[in-house]
Amino acid sequence: MLLPRQGRNYSYADYLTWNGEERWEVLDGIAYMQSAPSRIHQEISGELYRQFANYLQGKNCRVYHAPFCVRLDVEDNDNDVKNVVEPDITIICDSSKLDERGCKGTPDLIIEILSPSTGKNDKVFKFNKYEKAGVKEYWVVEPDQKIVSIFLLQSNARYGRPEMYTDEDKARISIFPDLEIDLNLVFSQQQ
């Protein structure tokens, strides 16, 4: 199993050969190694997953937590897929996008929980990739500030100004109008 080297262009076919003990993503053919999440990161992710999973029980949409592979490029040849991500939380409502390896195509909702090593990728590179791919709702969770920014895809295929929430709020979900995520529970373990 070869690991990525700097300066080379990678694809999903390469990604499949890498050591499964390390987490990698590929953005525009560039490989990025993911660091192990912190305890706080895991607790936030777990609570978000729990609230979404409870709501989605018995519904057509599915929620997945990292590591879960999302191939943003819909290509027949794995060598042509140059954007492979592992969001912290992914929701997919079109089951035809799911296969044994994860999601092939655009999820409906993606949540990224920032850490010092991922902030730039999550706020800039992935933001642009998710917008271009047509992810309807993109959340950026900032554990240190206890803030959630929710970006909604507008009719012009661009993200509008974010809806901002704190640990004192309940976040509304555009794709599930009757669901509110209790952010007090999400951030309550941070002590």
From TrEMBL:
Q: Which residues form a coiled coil?
A: none
Domain (Putative restriction endonuclease): give its ranges: 14-183
Pfam families from the UniProt entry: Uma2
On the tree of life, the source organism's domain of life is: Bacteria
Q: Which PANTHER family match?
A: GLR1098 PROTEIN, RESTRICTION ENDONUCLEASE DOMAIN-CONTAINING PROTEIN-RELATED
Protein name (database record): Putative restriction endonuclease domain-containing protein
What species is this protein from? Desulfosporosinus acididurans
